[in-house]
Amino acid sequence: MYHLGELVIRRQQEKLIKSVRKFVSKGQPYVIMDFPSAKDPGHHASWLGLARVLYEVTGRHPVLTGGVAKSIDEVKNTPGDAPIFICGWSDFGDGRIGRDDIRFRLACRYPDRTIIQMPQTIDFANDALLEYAKRTIGRHRKFFFMTRDEQSFGLAKANFDCDVEAGPDTAFSIELLKPFEADPMRLLYVMQPFGDDDVDIAEARAIADGPLTNWINGPDSLWRLRKSSVVKAAMRRGFSRAQMVSQHHEDVAARYVDYGVRMLSGAQRIITNRLHGHILCLLLNKPHVAVARNGSRLHDAIGSWASDSPLVEKATNAGELLAAMSRLPYEMNGTWYKSSRPMDLSPSLPARDLVPHPSIV
């Protein structure tokens, strides 16, 4: 079956490869930091995509991966020319741990290392954290920042004394996904309540009924070190503890992504208010509606990186859901239809340039 998301995905993968090549080349060592602390498949999708794009560019695995305080100390034992890539699975400035955030600690501890914050959203909990981030990044001088939505890009340009670039979430660098065998369902909600000003989930389900998952609590068993990870590391002559941990992190991320894919596999239509729900739907070739309030970061990111994909429609409230779903394509006997008409897929889907973003300013 024709993959309606492939052209958009390939374009974002090329963008990420181009961005990464500014910092690493074939055979160069590198470090990946901020391994997801939660059991959210979307967070792990960002890590897995980052690991894969870096391997494609360098042809080697990282010399160190980490996400806890101890791993910050271990960076000093890696080659001095190894840049530090920080995974963008969480919001920058979300106030989870304030000044103890791993990103700030890395910048303070390693002022002579190149540090690259991979694409993420900026959303500071308060002005004090923003001011601390401005001072920390300004002192570093080798900090490079990537954002995945226009609002975050503007905030970074206005406040951070460093190079800033717009880029898609690294989850786009996962290969095209195939659904697992699953019981079919007409509609699935992948949503999480984000606040009083967000779309009312109960109201949405009253209009278009379907099961609900916020998918952020995968099984603990996926975290366990398995013999297969040790074997994979050994096969690439990775006998050190750091190499074993690196392989383990990649395998854990892949398991959580598979966990998310299994939940999405049976649904014909998906309604989500999560960025990574949207990205995994694109990778899976699943028609979906991204529902969020006017001016949301979710719609901002979709408008920047996937606006020309027929797989996604946007809705700003529960009342717009039915109209948005009616605009989605559907597949029947191997043919894609839209508004009850076969889709013309030749020679290709539109591949226009995205909303213009300054590459590096």
Automatic annotation (TrEMBL):
Care to name a GO molecular-function term for this sequence? Answer: transferase activity
- Lineage, top-rank taxon, reads Bacteria
Annotated Polysaccharide pyruvyl transferase domain ranges read 74-293
Q: Which UniProt keywords apply?
A: Transferase
Protein name, as recorded: Exopolysaccharide biosynthesis protein
Q: Could you tell me which species this protein originates from?
A: Rhizobium hidalgonense
